[in-house]
Amino acid sequence: MRQLIAYLKSIGTPGLYRRGSSLLQKGEVPRDVLVILSGVVKAYVINQSGDQSIVNLCGKGVIIPVAWAHDHTEGSLFHYEAVNDVRVIAIRKSDFRAAIEHHPELWSEYLNYMIRAQASLLLRIAGLTQPRAITKICYTLSFLMFRYGIEKRPGIFEIDLKVTQVMLANLIGQTRESTAKNLKHLKESGVIAYKNSTYWINKAELERFIGEDETVDLSVA
Prior knowledge:
Blueprint: H1 2-11, E1 13-17, E2 22-24, E3 33-38, E4 41-46, E5 52-58, E6 63-64, H2 66-69, E7 79-82, E8 86-91, H3 93-102, H4 104-128, H5 133-148, E9 149-153, E10 156-159, H6 165-172, H7 176-188, E11 192-195, E12 198-202, H8 203-210
Antiparallel strand pairs: 1-8, 2-7, 3-6, 3-8, 4-5, 4-7, 9-10, 10-12, 11-12
Helix pairs in contact: 1-3, 3-4, 4-5, 5-6, 5-8, 6-7
């Protein structure tokens, strides 16, 4: 979305959210559409016990809240919080809509963005339906690779998003201990490598590990 982001930067206002600060609260009517330029934002809900459940991790290029931007909701569907320092561009809704509706080349980029976002979230949903914790993690990693993966060398993708083991555990509804154990197993099996919350994924090995009966096309091209 290079052209779209460059255009939005030219008409929007830069902003900075420090780690732990709120971008939006669930039900809040946003002032602007926000485009993430750097950092990680978690979208989450809070259950009756007061616990958070992460719905999505939003990184560079993600637009929030997209449903409100297109008048499908009156306010934010989720809480959005900065996991680390987050830089954004804030654009008035009317200006955002005009940008994608009046510039065919920007609309094309935006359509591709929405397709990828939808496909990646389907991988996340597929992961949540898996009975085994390690398969949940594999699908979650494929979701992150599809959405944020950068091919550093043939078949090896770096997830361009800082993801802690606690965040991964929250994404799949498992304990940190179980998640750490399964990640170690995937590392020893050559499926992934990780250091300082950065993950590298061997696409072919990940597909093999998921299994022939469940293999999906995880191409990020």
